[in-house]
Design goal:
Length: 590
């Protein structure tokens, strides 16, 4: 099998640019609110995992921030000594900071990022559970936030920095964090709890400093002759027994009985195991399977994938291109590539089977040029709102490689939110900032043709009178997506409650008022120069009762009509009676 890899080394191919060196800066919030959002201080093992996986030779540094900003791990070249320092400093992460000085930590972490440098892939990972908070003065905080967006963010964009943001609570400034990620091409992640941090940091590591990986199926993976070193990331539950690893030959081993070429780092929720010069053949993880387990390898044979989006609109196409490279040269030999199967898998949730497609090098379906060693596929109409895991795999006769990418599918370009406000209603229109820049689009009210007024950086808003209860309001969005594509779409929202005329009589005293609407458009208009209309009405507005006003009016009209008929009949009878009386008196006179 080693002979086959010597042959691969001799394969001619197209030269590709040397991969830039990762430069990763990490900013960790240590404000006092973290006592509630991260009571177990799971930022510590999450940071140890991230720094432990960084490849030697890359650049990295760690900063903590509250009222003050401290360089926890000095920025520099990643070495075994640097990793040991990072591991020790992670244990000092606390939750005693008084404020949340996001502006200063960005300034200090980006201290030497003034201009772009193609030698480095620059990434800033920012974790916080709050908002910009540097003083007890709202105006001071607002000015700091504005400087982040108007001064620091353009500097980061010019320097080619990707900002990945993690919101650890619902109190985080989501608009700010999403904007930082969207404007720089980074990823925004929302942790539902601190327990998610370790897995999110693993995913962000794969964004910032990707390493070749081997696919795991049923806790089994195959090591080939080209692998010089492998690092296993294995997650465990509290009730799981200690991890044991079964090599191709010999007995299984655990942390206590690990052989000399194995280094083992253990945390409560995961194990990080590095094996130098692993033996060829099938390995097994003797533990519960977990979709986030990884086998990361050092090898000259790499699977490369063209840059992929971090967010898509439901229905968007997803183009994928991948190729194999050996020592920074793309492999183009057809007789070799004919033995390799390139596949694309899309997973959403553990209980759903993945969708699978084959990549081809035939010049069709987003492949580009035929037989150039680049295999492509265009997935049309991505569906399934939420987080997706994309797996690109190359399976050869003697090796396997895997590339993993996490992205989100959003249902619409806007989120429409209706709240009761006094006698009327308040409509908030919140942009999906990962897809659109609010400055590049207009939101127009369909019934009047007027643009909705902007609500600062939050989106757009509109006050509606009580007469809109029970009605449907439509808005249109027109402009450009962050991708540069023109877009025009229509969204509708139903205002909660019964129509105003009926509301006065609809409910007996003491009954609950209609619930608030939860309006979110479910369709989008997307495609260059395309116009697509669709609408979705959400929430559960109260059903309108009988129209008592109309019933009352009809009853009154019927009573008036009956009264008129009665009066007319009485008059007729009275006239007849008077006439008969007159005739009788005349007869008596005769």
């Amino acid at each position: 099998m080693r002979v086959s890899f010597l042959l691969i080394l001799l394969l001619p191919g197209a030269a590709v640019a040397a991969a830039p060196v990762p430069d990763v800066r990490v900013a960790i919030d240590v404000s006092g609110s973290m006592k509630q959002t991260d009571p177990r201080n799971l930022r510590r093992p999450a940071l140890r995992l991230l720094t432990g996986l960084l490849p030697e030779g890359s650049r990295a540094g760690v900063w903590t921030f509250g009222q003050y900003v401290n360089m926890a791990v000095p920025w520099g070249r990643v070495t075994p000594a640097w990793k040991a320092k990072a591991r020790a400093e992670a244990g000092r992460i606390h939750s005693r900071g008084r404020y949340t000085n996001i502006e200063e930590v960005i300034q200090k972490a980006a201290f030497n990022w003034q201009r772009p440098d193609p030698r480095y892939a620059r990434h800033l990972i920012l974790l916080t559970d709050g908002k910009v908070d540097i003083a007890r003065d709202a105006e001071v905080d607002a000015l700091s936030r504005r400087r982040i967006l108007e001064t620091l963010l353009p500097q980061l964009v010019r320097a080619g920095v990707r900002v990945h943001t993690v919101a650890l609570s619902g109190d985080s400034d989501r608009a700010l964090l999403e904007t930082l990620a969207a404007e720089t091409g980074g990823r925004f992640a929302e942790a539902t709890s601190a327990a998610d941090l370790q897995r999110i940091f693993l995913q962000l590591f794969e964004q910032a400093a990707p390493r070749p990986a081997l696919p795991i199926e049923g806790n089994r993976f195959t090591v080939d002759a080209g692998v010089r070193e492998m690092t296993l990331v294995v997650f465990r539950g509290k009730a799981d027994p200690p991890l044991r690893i079964q090599p191709p030959q010999g007995r299984a081993f655990d942390e206590a009985g690990a052989p000399d070429p194995v280094s083992w780092y253990h945390e409560d929720d995961y194990d990080l195991v590095t094996v130098r010069a692993p033996s060829e053949g099938e390995w097994r993880l003797l533990t519960r399977a977990d979709p986030d387990n990884r086998v990361l390898v050092l090898t000259d044979l790499r699977l490369e994938v063209r840059e992929l989006p971090t967010a898509l609109l439901a229905g968007d196409p997803l183009p994928v291109q991948a190729w194999l490279s050996e020592r920074e040269r793309r492999i183009t030999r057809r007789d070799f590539l004919e033995l390799v199967r390139f596949t694309l898998l899309d997973r959403q949730g553990e209980d759903q089977p993945p969708q699978e497609w084959k990549l081809a090098d035939d010049g069709q379906a987003n492949d580009g040029k035929a037989h150039d060693g680049i295999f492509g596929r265009r997935v049309d109409g991505v569906a399934g709102e939420g987080e997706h895991v994309l797996l690109v795999r190359a399976d050869g006769a003697t090796f396997q490689r895997e590339f993993r990418h996490v992205y989100r599918v959003l249902p619409a370009l806007l989120r429409l939110q209706v709240e009761k406000a006094g006698e009327g209603f308040h409509l908030g229109v919140v942009p999906e900032r990962l897809l659109i820049d609010p400055a590049e689009v207009k939101v127009i009210r369909e019934d009047t043709g007027e643009p909705l007024p902007a609500a600062g950086e939050q989106g757009w808003e509109l006050a509606l009178p009580a007469a809109f209860a029970g009605k449907t309001l439509a808005v249109r969005i027109a402009g450009r997506r962050r991708t540069g594509q023109p877009v025009e779409a229509r969204y509708t929202v139903r205002i909660p409650g019964a129509p105003a005329a009926a509301a006065e009589h609809a409910a007996a005293p003491g009954h609950a008022t209609p619930p608030e609407a939860q309006a979110a458009p479910a369709a989008h208009g997307e495609a260059p120069a395309a116009h697509e209309e669709a609408a979705a009405e959400h929430g559960n507005p109260a059903e309108a009762g009988p129209d008592w006003t109309r019933i009352l009016i009809l009853t009154l009209l019927i009573n008036l009509l009956l009264a008129a008929v009665g009066i007319a009949a009485w008059l007729v009878l009275r006239r007849l009676r008077l006439r008969r009386q007159a005739e009788d008196e005349a007869a008596l006179q005769l």
